[in-house]
Amino acid sequence: MAQTANTSHDMGFCTVEQHILSKQGEHPLSTGAFTSVLVGITLAGRIISAKVRRAGILEVLGEAGDVNVHGEQQQKLDLLANKALEGCLCYRESVGIIASEELDEPRIVRETSGKYVIIFDPLDGSSNIDVNVSVGTIFSIFERDCEHPKGHDHLNDVLQPGHKQVAAGYIVYGSSTVMCYTTGEGVHMFTLDPSVGSFVLAQENVRMPLKGKYFSVNEGNYNSFPKGVREYLNWCKSEEAGPYSARYIGSLVADFHRTLLRGGIFLYPPTAKSPKGKLRLMYEANPIAFLAEQAGGRATDGKRNILEIVPGSLHERTPLFVGSETEIERVERFMQEHGA
Ligand code: AHM
Ligand code: MG
Predict the structure, then answer these.
(1) Which CATH architecture has domain 214-338?
(2) CA distances (Å), 97 to each of 165, 212, 310, in order?
(3) Nearest ligand 1 atom to alpha carbon 101
(4) Is the pTM of this model over 0.90?
(5) How far, in Å, from the CA of 19 to the mean position of ligand 2?
């Protein structure tokens, strides 16, 4: 069971903005500039949530007609979500660079000021948009040094390994809209109260259970998984294991949210179609890995801790295994023995 340190009930009514502000002074990075970035993200989250909730009425479902840098059809809601984040962030003085799944290249918002680099997947789980299944927004924040020499390549400010993230989080638009974030001091969870339009503290210091009997994977790809992964999944279904229960939504944010609260494992291994994995390192795996570690879990690409990977490009892909410590150790043992 996830443990609760404090909830809104014993602390009073605490919004996400109040929570972030209350951390100012406690954390070396908790400054007004940093708070402004997080508040920009929560504002965008509320805008996106409103669009997702009324998608059928607003006629924003379906394809937009363009493909993104990955060759995937952009959905109208993908673009609206991207626009909401750009709009809510770029206005803020502390924003230096933004990068998104929906933008080919990072956008340099301020050349020589704007200390933060914000990288996001505006609407993750695109295939679920039109069928009323949970989707989400994922974000990752780095610092950059604004005092750089002339000719500085801003891409280097973006391509930082995950362990340098100063904050990360997601918003899941599910049966309710929930936001989780970390600044490296635990994971905190908020629920959007639509009657007042605020994210209200639901749980501070969320802990991922050490083990959990859920495995979450697209088993349609089973035949092309590495042998170690196939053997692990066979074990999950064996009598010896219990067996485990399968849960797969196909939206990373929603699948991870369940894994965070209930424990178990989410995996997207290399496949024949995506030999380097399908998920994107910088705006999917990194923020999820940071949150997992902060909640007591772990994330690996099968060989390395996700947070140690030095990215070569913004849209780089990676295999991802994330979840309860016990399950990650177990899948690693299977991969060491049978091949990753
Ligand atoms: P997207 O960013 O284009 O939506 O793709 C990422 C999504 C993840 O949310 C999810 O874990 C995965 O793709 C599902 O992939 P698949 O449909 O191959 O199972
Ligand atoms: Mg995505």
Answers:
(1) 3-Layer(aba) Sandwich (3.40)
(2) 14, 38, 19
(3) 2
(4) yes
(5) 27
